[in-house]
Every structure is written in structure tokens, then in C-alpha cells.
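wait is this the right file?? whatever heres the structure
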């Protein structure tokens, strides 16, 4: 019998209803409608992938995907509420209000020249629209845990690559040769870390081994796609474990090169301590169903890089305000080479950083302007994170906590040090001497 990493001869194992935990009551009604409609149309239809995996481990799936032998055009003919998307992977989206059921046609594992597949010379898969059987589709999927099919006709789980046992063992294993699969799609390395963090799975040794020396391949992935992957890594409730996984498998320098270098050079470990504390707080907010801003997230992840850039500029005797602006711009521009951070997030991120220099200043006009700034609350929350890594900010945190209630009382209780705000004193305008009409 082939091993799970040998896709040459997939073998069906059918797990009957009484031997697994999946119930129709836990499946989206929209997904059930798609499954039954496809069967009524004469096509095979299965709930597939992450939904089956999550249901087996007792989680509530975020999305429900369907696999079928119907082509995208045939799916569209069955559903009026369907649209076809994608060039790299042609898919059908069946829309039910806010819910979208993604329907994918079984894909073949071998290109016989009759389909639409394009591969880069280094192995990256650029397009894959060659259709095949369910057996071929199973071995084309990434991880064994994602290659499980729930059959609506008899409520069984179909397993061709050993995924059911891996889920029970909480093991994440790639199907096929790991290095080849990572070269086909380098983002699979991030997916391995993310899924292991989300599911509390262990990455199988053969699956983990190639990651450190292939991490550089992430540079070939589209920066916009890496931005989306970052949101999944850090805004889904398992940010801390995702970060630790990126460190463990050598992916952090590939994703955040300047921040990784800054944390490695920081002897006290304060920068890393702050990042971990912030990610832990992010997980708590997600668990409490409170909003989390991508701008704040990236302000946290890139703060080590900003601190290092700022110190380098200050060492060159650049004026403080100018050094702060230049450091923020430099870090943002350099990070864009890897992750396409949209301006609607990068600009607030920079404002959070630049506001940090205002917090030691307590001249009344400056305090009132800072309190009125639209990013004040985010910047204050960021300051409290800085305190978690260094006690030197405790007095500033106490002052601004009180200032939000009563600025004058806070200023009286925490007066600025003598001369601390001298540069904030209002400047007198020099009166221009009027020359007499007609000259002298």
C-alpha cells in the first residue's frame, strides 16, 4: 500500500456515518442545497477540504467548499445565482446572499496535453485547469487533512490518501514530494504554519524539513497574495502560534526581513516581547469578537524594523521629527517588496508610530491636539504594548489614561519636566517693518 506521501496509487477508504462525527445539522444549508442540486443534475458532489477537516476536529467551518465532476460551465447552467471566477484555477461561486459556496471541478494529476496547465520553469504552478477524477483530485490537494470528501448520498467520508488517520493523530502532512509541492506553490509553506497553529496540529517531519531552505521562494509569490496570507495568519485567532511557527520554520525573515533582523539584533529581547504581547492581545480580541485593525497589526509587526531604522538615522544626526518620518517611509517602502500593504493601512500604521513621540510631551495645547487626533486611541493602545516590554513608559501610560478623563487634572498631577516642552512654546510672529510708500 502506498504511503500518504506517495500519490501514485490512491486507495479509497470509506468511513461510514457511525465512525465519524460529521452531522448534516452542522453543515451550511446553502452547501447542502448545492450538494443535492448537483446530484439531482446527474453529477457527483462532495463537501471537501477544510470544512470536512474542521468538522472532524469539532470546529465550526468558516467556509463550505464543494467538489464535483461537473465543469464550471455545467455548474453555472444548474444555478442562476452562479458566477465563474479565476484564471489560475477556474471555479464556480454559487451565491446565497452573503454566503458563497465555492464549487471546484475535480482536477487531474497529469497533463496529457488536452487541458489548460502552465508551470514556471522553477516548478511554480501558474495555471491548472485540467479536469479529472475524484482519485486524481485527491492527490492534487495539498495536505492529507484537506483531501477528505463527505458524500451526501450515504453520509460517509471518502479518504484516498490517509487523511482521516492524520486528522485523528492531529498531524499535518503534505501529499506527494514536499519540495516539489512547495516549488509548485511556495505559499503552501505559510499554509502549513497557519493550519498547524489553527488546528493545534504537528507538522510531519518530512513536510517540515524542506521549509527553511525553500523559504526564499516566497519572494516569487505575488505581494498582494502574501498580504492576504498575513491577514489569515494573524487575524484568525491564532496569531501568537502563527508567529512562533514562522520563527520555528525559518519563514519570518522571508516574510518580514527587516523586523526579523531587528529582533535578532535586539539583545534585551524587548522588541520580540512586545510583538508577542501584541499578538496575544490580538488573539484575545478575536476570541471576544472585537474588531482588529490590519493597520494596528502591521504597526506591531513592523515596529522592530521602524525602531532600528530610526536609530540608524538618529546616529547620523538627522533631526528627530525628520528621522521619524524617514524611518516610517523607509520601512513601509521596503516591506512593499514582499507584502503589498495597501495605503489605507500603511498610512494609519505610520501615524500610530509617529504619535509615539508625542506621548512624553505634556504642554496643554500639545495634549489637546494629541487627544483630538483620529489615531489617538490606537496609538495609546500601542503605547500600552510598549509598556509591556519596558517599564520606562509606565508614567506616560498613566498620564494619558488620566488625560482621557480630565486633561487639566492629568497635567496638574503629572507636570512636564522643566524645559521638556520648551520647543512647543508658541512662537511670536515677527512684525514686518512697513516701508513708506514711494520708498525712502
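ok assuming it is, sequence goes like this
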Amino acid at each position: 500500500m502506498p504511503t500518504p506521501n506517495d500519490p501514485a496509487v490512491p486507495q479509497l477508504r470509506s468511513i461510514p456515518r457511525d465512525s465519524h462525527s460529521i452531522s448534516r445539522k452542522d453543515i451550511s444549508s446553502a452547501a447542502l442545497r448545492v450538494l443535492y442540486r448537483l446530484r439531482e443534475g446527474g453529477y457527483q458532489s462532495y463537501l471537501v477540504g477544510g470544512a470536512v477537516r474542521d468538522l472532524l476536529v469539532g470546529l465550526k467551518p468558516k467556509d463550505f467548499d464543494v467538489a464535483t465532476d461537473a465543469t464550471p460551465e455545467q455548474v453555472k447552467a444548474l444555478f442562476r445565482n452562479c458566477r465563474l471566477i479565476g484564471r489560475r484555477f477556474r471555479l464556480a461561486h454559487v451565491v446565497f446572499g452573503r454566503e458563497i459556496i465555492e464549487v471546484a471541478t475535480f482536477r487531474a494529476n497529469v497533463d496529457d496535453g488536452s487541458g489548460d496547465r502552465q508551470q514556471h520553469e522553477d516548478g511554480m504552478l501558474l495555471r491548472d485547469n485540467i479536469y479529472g477524477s475524484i482519485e486524481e483530485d485527491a492527490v492534487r490537494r495539498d495536505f492529507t487533512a484537506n483531501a477528505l470528501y463527505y458524500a451526501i448520498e450515504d453520509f460517509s467520508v471518502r479518504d484516498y490518501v490517509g487523511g482521516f488517520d492524520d486528522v485523528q493523530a492531529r498531524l499535518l502532512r503534505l501529499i506527494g514530494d514536499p519540495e516539489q509541492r512547495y516549488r509548485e506553490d511556495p505559499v503552501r509553506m505559510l499554509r502549513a504554519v497557519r493550519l498547524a497553529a489553527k488546528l493545534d496540529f504537528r507538522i510531519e517531519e518530512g513536510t517540515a524539513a524542506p521549509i527553511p531552505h525553500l523559504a526564499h521562494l516566497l519572494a516569487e509569490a505575488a505581494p498582494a497574495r502574501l498580504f492576504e496570507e498575513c491577514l489569515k495568519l494573524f487575524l484568525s485567532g491564532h496569531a501568537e502560534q502563527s508567529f512562533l511557527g514562522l520563527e520555528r520554520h525559518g519563514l519570518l525573515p522571508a516574510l518580514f526581513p527587516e523586523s526579523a533582523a531587528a529582533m535578532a539584533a535586539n539583545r534585551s529581547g524587548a522588541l520580540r516581547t512586545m510583538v508577542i504581547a501584541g499578538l496575544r492581545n490580538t488573539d484575545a480580541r478575536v476570541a471576544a469578537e472585537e474588531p482588529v485593525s490590519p493597520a494596528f497589526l502591521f504597526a506591531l509587526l513592523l515596529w522592530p524594523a521602524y525602531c532600528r531604522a530610526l536609530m540608524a538615522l538618529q546616529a547620523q544626526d538627522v533631526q528627530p521629527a525628520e528621522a521619524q518620518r524617514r524611518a516610517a517611509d523607509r520601512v513601509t517602502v521596503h516591506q512593499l517588496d514582499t507584502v503589498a500593504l495597501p495605503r489605507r493601512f500603511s498610512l494609519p500604521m505610520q501615524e500610530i508610530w509617529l504619535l509615539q513621540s508625542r506621548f512624553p510631551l505634556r504642554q496643554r495645547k500639545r495634549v489637546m491636539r494629541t487627544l483630538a487626533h483620529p489615531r489617538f486611541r490606537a496609538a495609546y493602545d500601542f503605547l500600552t504594548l510598549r509598556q509591556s516590554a519596558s517599564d520606562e513608559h509606565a508614567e506616560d501610560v498613566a498620564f494619558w489614561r488620566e488625560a482621557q478623563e480630565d486633561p487639566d487634572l492629568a497635567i496638574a498631577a503629572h507636570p512636564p519636566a522643566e524645559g521638556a516642552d520648551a520647543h512647543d512654546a508658541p512662537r511670536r510672529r515677527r512684525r514686518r517693518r512697513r516701508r513708506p510708500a514711494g520708498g525712502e
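Confidence is low (pLDDT under 50) at residues 1-5, 111-120, 123-127, 422-430. so i think its the right one actually
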